[in-house]
Amino acid sequence: MTSRPKSFGAAITGLGLVTPAGIGVKENWDRVQSGVSCATADENLRDSPVSFSCRIPGFAPRELLTGSSSWQLERFVQLALVASRQALEDAGWDPVAWDGARVGVVLGNSLGGVGTFERQHSTLLEGGPRKVSPLLIPRLMVNMVAGYVAIDIGATGPSLVTATACASGTTAVGTARELLRSRACDVVLAGGTESALTPLVIAGLGKMGALSRRGDDPSTASRPFDACRDGFVAAEGAGVLVLERPEDARARGAHVRAVVRGFGSATDAYHATSPSPEGHGIEQALRAALADAGMTAADVDHVNAHGTGTPLNDVTEGRMFHRVLGDRPLVTSTKGVTGHALAAAGAIEAAYTALAIEHRSVPPTANLTRLDPEVEIDVVSGVARDAVIDVAVSTSLGFGGHNAALVLAAS
């Protein structure tokens, strides 16, 4: 009998979530467990062909970011700052007490400060270059979110942004784990953030045919794996995880919610925006993550799928899960509740996966009334399902053919 290779685990000691499902971990978990969609009509998109989205309710940066001028920053940065502070509090870390040189920041983002870009481009056309804000570039650049979070928490170790489209948050968690494995860092804040619900972005996604058109009843629009799905609902949000080596977490008495055991990534090399029809890229990423974790398909109890609700993604991903994992794991897509937060989605869903392990419960896939007959997997719908979850998988796919997968396990 051959022994499995010893895998490296990164302990998740803190979570921060700022999403359409709420501000805070408890609010998020309660909402995704309810299976009630967050999609509503969006006043900022009232003149758009797709006039609904999943925005974060009650996000007040002046109140949530007191004691600094952070409320002046671009919204995608604000979301990350709030989620990072939550995660550190959850982990029991006081940045004043740590060695900042041993702390890293890895965050996923794809569209940066696109809202500022749109507004400042109008300013340029209407008033000329003298009217353009000197803050345009620092508010626009995607890397600035890692920089601002590092400034906020005094982290002087490595900081970077991963940009693999909708796989960015998952890639960030996998990259952060490598910083711990290599001992470049002792603590890493990892996650993703996105806030790009602008008329231009929504128009572009709509013209691609990626968005649902169920404007008559937005609450039923995001319906992953359903036979009548017609596209995703765009969302905003941020998710941040505090990662540490398990022995370090134990030494300081930290609560470990779950452990990141494996990470895999692969590229379709097929099409700019459509997934490989047979799902070879995401299959390669998933198999690599399982191998990295020293586990097999038979070990997997639960899957938090990318599950966007687009016609192509869900069939491709569903077939791949059946081929690789069979029909035993309990599958969900929390995007039925939250919508699709693009670069932040993978980090948010990694956090939900950790919570599923911790609470021994799989959230339902919202709006799933009739499973697509081509999807032969056990997709949880209606109500949450209790289950002992020792090993779980979270998957992400992105434009450009990017694929990433995480394997999480109980601590």
Automatic annotation (TrEMBL):
Which intervals hold domain Ketosynthase family 3 (KS3)?
7-410
Sorted keywords for this record are: Acyltransferase, Transferase
Q: What is its EC number?
A: 2.3.1.179
Question: Is Transferase set as a keyword in this record?
Answer: yes
What is the residue range of the signal peptide feature? none
Q: Would I find Acyltransferase among this entry's keywords?
A: yes
Matches recorded under Pfam families: ketoacyl-synt (PF00109), Ketoacyl-synt_C (PF02801)
Q: Which domain of life is it from?
A: Bacteria
Alphabetically, the GO molecular function entries are:
3-oxoacyl-[acyl-carrier-protein] synthase activity
EC top class, in one word? transferase
Q: What family classification does the UniProt entry report for this protein?
A: Belongs to the thiolase-like superfamily. Beta-ketoacyl-ACP synthases family.
Name-wise, this protein is 3-oxoacyl-[acyl-carrier-protein] synthase II
